[in-house]
Amino acid sequence: VTxxxxxxxxxxxLIDLARAVAAVGVRQYVYVQLINQxxxxxxxxxxxxxxxxxxxxxVEMFKSDLMRNxxxxxxxxxxxxxxxxxxxxxxxxxxxxxxxxxxEMPNVPPQLGVPVSxxxxxxxxxxxxxxxxxxxxxxxxxxxxxxxxxxxxxxAAPVLIISAVGLTYLGVMxxxxxxxxxxxxxxxxxxxxxxxxxxxxxxxxxxxVSRYAEERALGRDKTEAVKVVWRxxxxxxxxxxxxxxxxxxxFAISRLPFMQSIGVGYLITTLFIVLTIFLIxxxxxxxxxxxxxxxxxxxxxxxxxxxxxxxxxxxxLKKPLLVAVAAALVTLLSFLFLxxxxxxxxxxxxxxxxxxxxxxxxxxxxxxxxxxxxxxTYIAMKNPPPPELLHEVxxxxxxxxxxxxxxGDWYIVAVKLSLEDTSDKLLDVYRRLNxxxxxxxxxxxxxxxxxxxxxxxxxxxxxxxxxxxxxIAAVVLILAxxxxxxLxxxxxxxxxxxxxxxxxxxxVALFQEAMGQPTYWLVPVVLFAFLMAIGTDYDIFIITRIRxxxxxxxxxxxxxxxxxxxTGPVITGAAIILAxxxxxxxxxxxxxxxxxxxxxxxxxxxxxxxxxxxxxPALITLAGKYNWLWITGYxxxx
Length: 638
Hints:
This protein has 638 residues and is of the alpha+beta class. It is built from 22 helices and ten strands. The longest helix is centred in the last third of the chain and has 36 residues.
């Protein structure tokens, strides 16, 4: 009845409202109505406002959802969506930051990264060199002292020799320090000074002390024995020292200052060694006399492995042609292996120790080739560069960008490359620009690529096309006049080249093929110079002794056998000393010195254990009387 009455006076909407309120209650009805009337995006936040009164929570949720919705519809830029920034990141593993600074070596906090800079790289290299030199010096002295104890079987003589050579080394270092402002000394000279001085100095002194012991064992008095040693030094060691100075000093003829520094440094080193040998050691022998053999009570020449040497010499004398052919075959195979396999690098960074700065440089040049502008190569033209040339420039390997400006009468194109100034790839850049000169020239090439080309041609190409022949010619002439023979110097150089070929082939097989490390260009250059200098020592000592024995009445073969068997143990000991001295370079963190140390040490052992007792007597036997052919006829006096 009520509904009917109400229905006659109220509309249907009010009735539905009354029913809803009666069913859910006023509070719930108002809440539902508010929800329905609120725009959909705002509805999720009403419970926090109405039920809890938490305005801050509602505002925070609103901001968060608003940001999420906006970024979903309009994604913000990332380092990968910005073209320039994407080039500075590699697979979330490495990132590159470009920093401009007025300082040569700005302070970069370690947590930010590692700077890619030549200055930092050289600083770390200097630190490693300083640490290595001290370690190598101590190890060299200790190793040589141990070998001398074994070779000489006495205590006083090794102490005397190591002390004299050690003082010579200190004298050389002090002299270098005094002249360093006038004549810059390249780091390699200082680095290798200890092995060179100890190896050559100890070799010479060992030979002289052994000769003194031999003369005393034959019954000569002290004065006469010292005179014989002096004559022996004048004839054999003077010739050897002249060859050493010629070979090691040959670097001084280069036009590059740092190569001149190496040559001058080793000339000074040789001079100090010669002064010690000719002035100090004979004086010490005369003053100390037989006390140099303490604690031995009897004086005897060191015999060492004379029986093994005697068997090797007998084999060479009986089958000289077979030995010579076998040696020639091994040498030929070594040369063929080197020609087909040797991979040379002229990049000094490759030879540097593995520091964090070197690693950073490798990362930058490997993963950021088109971003990292590490070097600049210039093209200078009188006329505006044609567009075709600029298009070709953009195709250069490791190209980053270029700028074009006019300076006076010249148009300068500055080409930025992601290659360090020392990279081998700059040679390819220079060759390509040189080829383009035929189409778009004339123009001049300067900057990093041009400098790399100058260094490569001045050092490596010039050495193998000129300097090596100058050294060989000078050594042959010196030895010819000192030994009074045309043939012996030629044979001597040939056997040294055998040692070089064999040892360099072994170095390439080990470092390049087995370990994947290219051969640094200085290794064959230094190897040739050092082996030409040091490898001739043993041969000169043997030839000098052969001449003495022939002049004393022995026939050719008997003189060869007597000379090698007599001097062989001492030469073997000298070779072990030389190998020990240079093998300490393998303790270095620098690839160059490890390669040089291994190669020269191996060459010394091959020279003493194979070349001298087998190949040399075989070749001398085959040559016969022509060994002594000279301007005045046969120079030997029987």
